[in-house]
Amino acid sequence: MTKTMDQRLIPSWNVPNAITLVRLCLALIISWLLFMPWESGIKAAGILLLIAFITDLLDGPVARRLGQATLFGAIFDIITDFLLFSPALLLAMRAGLFERVNKLVPLNPYLYAVWAMSGIVSTIAGISVFLWKRRTRYIEFPLPPRVAKFNFIFWLTPLLAAIFRVGPDWGLAALMYLSMISGIASAISYFRKGFYIFTV
């Protein structure tokens, strides 16, 4: 996404959107694998989640390089990120993958999960308001601040560590706390950059 992003809300099936569509398909498979009680399925879900994360790093640079940054692509990317992360997080909690840090994180894993999910809900609310108001007037879509992309990394890293069961317990706990700090920074940044959508 760039400052010259096409602001027309028209579905366009270009290369970056195809990459995002692959990520959306992976989200469905990951959710199914985490729902099944197979240990091998959980590991496979982790591998696919890692692949999906790599594709998330690719679609933005590809869109900029090919001059294919669009409003539809920007919103499609954000929503797909949430559809990838949210079910995976909830199903990982259901599978008890965060239980090993119960003594290190109060209200585990809800302190981490509720903050992440509230960030998702507030962003979806902002996009919904933008789309509603855009029906009757032109409003430029506020590009997500740079910290938002890093925030998604901080959200996803504890989830991957829990799924793969890697690192010491204190390491997973530290990643969960970092995701909370990142979430606060991202929320402030989003609020400062995009609050005008609620006032126009």
Q: How is the secondary structure organized here?
A:
Elements: H1 15-35, H2 39-66, H3 71-94, H4 110-134, H5 146-164, H6 169-194
Helix pairs in contact: 1-2, 1-3, 2-5, 3-4, 3-5, 4-6, 5-6
Number of helices: 6
Structural class: mainly alpha
Please state the overall shape, judged from the principal axes of the Cα atoms.
Answer: globular
The CATH architecture classification is: Up-down Bundle
Integer tally of domains: 1
Percentage of residues assigned to helices = over 70%
Overall pLDDT score: 86
Low-confidence stretches: none
Number of strands: 0
Determine the strand fraction and express it as a percent band. under 5%
- CATH third-level topology: Four Helix Bundle (Hemerythrin (Met), subunit A)
Radius of gyration: 17 Å
Largest sheet: none
Order of helices and strands: HHHHHH
Question: What is the CATH class?
Answer: Mainly Alpha
Distance between the termini: 23 Å
